[in-house]
Amino acid sequence: MVMHVTTHLREFDLTPEQFSVLFCLSKQEGINQKELALRTAKDQPTITRILDALSKKGFIEKKTSETDRRAFLLMLSPKGREWIELASPAEAKAIAEVVDGLSQEELQILRQTLLRITDNVNRHTKE
Questions:
Q1: Which residues of the chain carry a pLDDT beneath 50?
Q2: Torsions phi, psi of 90, nearest 5?
Q3: pTM (2 decimals)?
Q4: Total domains in the fold of the chain
């Protein structure tokens, strides 16, 4: 599935990981790196690497937090906003192709199963 999405996002010079970070920022800008890592289920080294790549591409901007001078708030740049709008249909098409032929019931079971697995992982990594 990741390879299929990768193929669809290649023309936008984005990896699925980069897309997920941009997509998350498009839903809520002005969050810090730690919060973004939590929302995208990435560890700190991975989110740092992704943010560095997105910054080099000109897709994100960092602004110093007014409440914590050590923290940066992350926002999409105008280019990042444009790119996420262009890439979103390609990502959606890739996902639709992957789940093609699954009934709504099967999709619901898949979602519930994946959420349960995610909850288990989260619960066991906190222990």
A1: none
A2: -65, -40
A3: 0.83
A4: 1
